[in-house]
Amino acid sequence: MTELDLARAQMAMLFAFHILFAVAGMGMPVLMVIAEGFHLKTRKPVYAELARRWARGTAVLFAVGAVSGTVLSFELGLLWPRFMEFSGGIIGLPFALEGFAFFAEAIFLGIYLYGWERVSPRLHLAAGCLVALGGVLSGVFVTAANAWMNSPAGFTVAAGYAADVSPLAAMANPAWKTEAIHMTLAAFAASGFAVAGIHAFRLLREPRNGFHRAALGIALSVGGAAAALQPLSGDMSARFVARDQPVKLAALEGQFRTQRGAPLRIGGLPDPAGETTRYAIEIPRGLSLLAFHDPDAEVPGLTAFPPDERPNPVPVHLAFQVMVACGMSMAAVAAAAAFLGWKRRERLFARPFLRAVAVCGPLGLLAVEAGWTVTELGRQPWVIRGVMRTSDAVTTVGGLALPFAFFTGIYIALGVSSVHLLRRELAASPFFPAEEESPADPGKG
User: Fold this and answer.
1) pLDDT tens readout for residues 178-206
2) Rounded mean pLDDT of 285-291?
3) Which residue in 229, 210, 226, 228 sits closest to 441, CA to CA?
4) Considering only CA atoms, which of 54, 23, 2 is closest in space to residue 365?
5) What residues have CB less than 8 Å from 318, skipping those under 6 apart?
């Protein structure tokens, strides 16, 4: 492997690991705040216990995310020094704001964890709300930096250097809004379904445990609502990509030839040599309709762009198909949950539905990983689209195989440790008698 390949592989590993904890840092505080809100409203101890346990889980995930995020920030400078030299003054603002949000989240998480019975209930709930706000803002500010890499703004290039820099314009780049909305909904859907899947699995063993029933209701409500809204966000993102990054759209859809009334492809395997996508199910004019809201619109194909400016359509298309399949599966379960909660609430805890929720539990996290694969590989060969190629941004220092192996081992240890701590917390979950109806049941008006 070349040094470029090793640098990209190391960043991919770091991102793939850290993003799971970043997503949890955005979604888990929302769940614990809702649980405490139910406790203050109903005075039922099951919700207080649920909020405490979810808070401890949030603390574990926050700590591991802090470590992995710190390593990631150092690796950006070590592996991509030319990128940081050029862009540091442009995108420093969102990173600084992310750091502020992160530290605020840490402070209020400490108050939340140790403030039970030490501060008033309303003040304690307010601290939890600030934890949730800090988590969401951290994700939004980091997304702004990534969006800038896809749609650079707020500067000009003079003699190879950035000039006329406007940090606010860079942060508010054209891609920020759609990426921030899509990422925030993805975090809520992934966190909600992951937690719902765990408690659904436990309910298959303890069907009358009110603790897991209350947890399933809250988690599935949050995850299901986000999953139901995600297709709307996906439509916004797809139309933006079609206008702003047509080569990425062509890669993720496996569209090789420029075509009016382009079909939407479900599945399939792109064949760059044959310039076709094999084995796909094609919906006539579907891509033109979704991307431009016009069934006869022209969609540029990959062959309309120079060969050295095309992303590899194979991993981009496959990752996009995985993301869409996961998202649609979660949306279908969310729709079923809403219907059952409206018509037959007890069916939410029937074994067939619990199995479906348990199976969908990891799909949100898988969709997040696939989505970031689409975002990053779809931008190649650029690290800053149209401005700096990835090959020009990488370090010239050799010997990257050793740090790659070292950090891989560290991250494996962190992952195993966090799973062990969370499993131990879950194994000690209490038993509360189930009630016929609960304010946390999905579909409760």
Assistant:
1) 999 999 999 999 999 999 999 999 999 98
2) 93
3) 210
4) 23
5) 269
Pairing mode, if any, of strands 276-278 and 264-266?
unpaired
Residue 159: count other Cβ atoms within 10 Å of its Cβ: 5
Q: Virtual CA dihedral for 49, 54, 56, 57, nearest 10 degrees?
A: 150
Report how far residue 17's alpha carbon sits from residue 414's, in angstroms, rounded to the nearest whole number: 10
pLDDT tens sequence across 72-93: 888 888 889 899 999 988 999 9
Instruction: From residue 245, give the alpha-carbon distance in Å to each of 85, 175, 289.
Output: 25, 10, 17
Q: What is the pLDDT of residues 205-237, one digit of tens each?
A: 988 888 999 999 999 999 999 999 999 998 999
Helix or strand run (H / E) with residue 156: strand 156-158
The per-type count for the chain, helices as H runs and strands as E runs, is: 14, 10
pLDDT digits (tens, 9 = 90+) for 260-287: 999 999 999 999 999 999 999 999 999 9
Burial class (CB in 10 A: 0-12, 13-18, 19+), 175: buried
Alpha carbons 260 and 342: distance in angstroms, whole number:
43
Task: Note whether 119 and 135 are within 8 A (CB).
Answer: no
Single pTM value for the model: 0.92
Q: What sections of 245-303 are H helices per DSSP?
A: 246-253, 286-292
Kindly report the number of other CB atoms within 10 A of residue 71's CB atom: 17
